[in-house]
Recover the amino acids of this structure.
């Protein structure tokens, strides 16, 4: 295959036409897709973007041998599989990607030699399928900057050849929304105009090709959370329904996600991230307690999804041997989580019925990690339990905050001086949510005004949060076509006269413990910096279509939590979590469990049980169940009750 260099763009040519797959047996019956939280392995935590075909297939082989018997079925290549691994290439570099004549990214043949000759991932997918597994990979939003710079034609995957409409052929520059780049990879990808037939045809050509390659799982990034692109998600979901191959559809990232936001997309996908990237720090683990509680309370676990069900995704498990975020280096270190923290993470993921995607290097899978990943009780809870939710009626018998607990928003927290460290952070949520209608305009003089958040918290110690309002600059010729979309919208500045404007989405990837606190960068013609104050008090961002809110965020790294669930055979699962930095005894009354599980008629002496991590047989349980837990540790009780 000849590789041409066009303005430093590496473009190789593939087949001109897509042919629909005839194998109807590859499609699932409507309603059967992702009936249980998907389970598998993903390359990101251990290889970042640099994984090769040989390394991937070796990991897949071990997954097949060791994890597949326990229900792990997907092996997923994470991002930048199309980037050439050469000097100068990194996450947001430009000019190093392999694209075909239609502007679609293709595997780097240097790392994926079986793709040479325009075969894409066909051979890799075939080998994965022969192992009894399913094959997946990561893709970005829209179209690559390289394709736009090269102005490649758009493929009509239905008719074959270049896409034609209104008497002309359409190209990448016709569909690219240059003001809507991916904020954490601005040189890499941008949205396409899905109101155009050519924009929809480009997306259709992508996913038709993925089906042709034999893909079973797609992780679609930079389209959710702060980067929400509901138009692209909708088009892709419709395309996936039309294909003859079943493809599980996953959305990412999850920064600032709320249940209200997720309710816009859960029926269009099968799993969607609800936090930023989860790495191996206690802060990242602890950050999942509030958000998982909120999604459970909103009945989002196992809700309607694309051709089946959908699942809130708490991200990969950074266990075993890992790399570092955004690194150009492969696996080289062990997880920083203690064994207690690892158990806490795996237990919470299972109780919340999150997809389970292991991120460590399978070639260096140690026995403690293997035992944790294959624990039969955890996997049964994750796949088969019901009524999964946080259980607020627990007590700390000793440790910090003893006797000072209150119930707030369905959880127990401590009344300590730590509350003084609360901070306000900018968040994004669905404009239909009840939270974001607290903005108003404050006129300072004829030419100067502020947009301020109306704080109802009653705090005397914090000044009102206000931003200066400024008209958008005149559009350049390149932006004139989109100018009408931004009438009535403004830049927002922290300080009048400074050329730093408020960004809705962070310009870097955030981890689960990090919040989008509202960043400022040089003002430009960018939808991420364009805002409109609506009459109902909402502040709308043009990049995502989400509305801004100001949230008070408290330290969630301490305290105690508990979850309950019901097993298929009627057993009751109760999990205690000690988020404190010192040993704490946690207790729950059987009478409170009875109130939380109506119809069970639980009472003292009606339950027998055991605890998973200690292996203790508790025998007949009296009026309460309790356990002393080391810092960041958990307990998982299995109760069999006669009530």
């Amino acid at each position: 295959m000849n590789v041409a260099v066009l303005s430093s763009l590496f473009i190789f040519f593939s087949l001109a036409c897509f042919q629909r797959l005839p194998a109807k047996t590859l499609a699932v019956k409507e309603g059967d897709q992702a009936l249980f939280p998907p389970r598998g392995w993903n390359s990101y935590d251990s290889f970042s973007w640099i994984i090769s075909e040989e390394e991937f297939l070796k990991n897949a082989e071990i997954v097949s041998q060791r994890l597949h018997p326990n229900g792990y079925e997907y092996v997923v290549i994470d991002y930048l599989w199309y980037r050439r691994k050469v000097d100068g290439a990194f996450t947001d570099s430009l000019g190093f990607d392999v694209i075909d004549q239609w502007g679609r990214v293709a595997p780097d043949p240097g790392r994926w030699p079986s793709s040479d000759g325009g075969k894409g991932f066909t051979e890799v997918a075939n080998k994965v399928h022969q192992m009894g597994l399913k094959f997946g990979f990561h893709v970005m939003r829209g179209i690559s900057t390289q394709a736009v710079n090269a102005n490649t034609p758009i493929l009509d995957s239905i008719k074959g050849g270049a896409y034609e409409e209104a008497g002309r052929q359409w190209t990448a520059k016709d569909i690219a929304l240059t003001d809507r780049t991916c904020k954490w990879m601005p040189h890499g990808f941008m949205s396409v105009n899905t109101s155009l037939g050519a924009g929809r045809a480009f997306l259709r050509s992508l996913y038709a090709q993925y089906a042709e390659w034999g893909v079973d799982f797609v992780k679609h990034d930079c389209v959710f959370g702060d980067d929400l692109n509901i138009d692209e998600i909708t088009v892709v979901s419709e395309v996936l329904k039309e294909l003859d191959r079943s493809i599980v559809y996953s959305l990412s990232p999850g920064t600032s996600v709320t249940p209200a936001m997720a309710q816009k997309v859960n029926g269009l996908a099968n799993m969607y991230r609800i936090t930023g990237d989860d790495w191996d720090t206690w802060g990242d683990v602890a950050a999942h307690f509030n958000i998982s509680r909120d999604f459970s309370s909103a009945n989002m676990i196992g809700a309607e999804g694309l051709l089946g069900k959908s699942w809130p995704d708490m991200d990969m498990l950074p266990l075993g041997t890992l790399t570092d975020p955004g690194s150009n280096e492969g696996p080289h270190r062990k997880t920083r989580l203690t064994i207690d923290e690892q158990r806490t993470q795996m237990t919470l993921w299972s109780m919340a019925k999150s997809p389970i995607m292991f991120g460590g290097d399978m070639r260096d899978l140690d026995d403690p990690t293997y035992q944790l990943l294959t624990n039969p009780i955890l996997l049964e809870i994750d796949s088969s339990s019901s009524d999964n939710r946080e259980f607020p009626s627990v007590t700390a018998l000793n440790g910090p905050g003893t006797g000072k607990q209150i119930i707030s928003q369905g959880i127990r927290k401590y009344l300590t001086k730590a509350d003084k460290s609360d901070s306000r952070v900018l968040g994004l949520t669905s404009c239909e949510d009840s939270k974001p209608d607290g903005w108003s305009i404050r006129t300072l003089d004829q030419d100067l005004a502020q947009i301020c958040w109306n704080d109802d918290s009653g705090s005397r110690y914090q000044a009102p949060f206000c931003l200066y309002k400024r008209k958008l600059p005149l559009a350049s010729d390149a932006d004139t076509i989109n100018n009408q979309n931004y009438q009535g919208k403004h830049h927002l500045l922290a300080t009048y006269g400074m050329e730093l404007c408020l960004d809705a989405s962070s310009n870097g990837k955030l981890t689960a413990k990090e919040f989008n606190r509202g960043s400022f960068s040089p003002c430009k013609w960018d939808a991420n910096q364009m805002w409109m104050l609506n009459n109902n008090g909402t502040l709308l961002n043009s990049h995502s279509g989400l509305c801004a809110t100001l949230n008070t965020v408290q330290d969630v790294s301490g305290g105690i939590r508990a979850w309950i669930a019901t097993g298929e055979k009627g057993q009751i699962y109760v999990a205690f979590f000690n988020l404190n930095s010192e040993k704490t005894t946690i207790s729950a009354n059987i009478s409170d469990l009875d109130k939380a599980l109506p119809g069970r008629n639980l009472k003292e002496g009606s339950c027998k049980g055991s605890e998973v991590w200690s292996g203790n047989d508790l025998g007949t349980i009296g009026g309460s169940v309790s356990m002393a837990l080391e810092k960041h540790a958990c307990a998982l009780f299995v109760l069999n009750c006669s009530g």
Confidence is low (pLDDT under 50) at residues 1-25, 403-422. The chain is about 20% helix and 30% strand. The radius of gyration is 26 Å. The first strand starts at residue 3 and ends at 6.
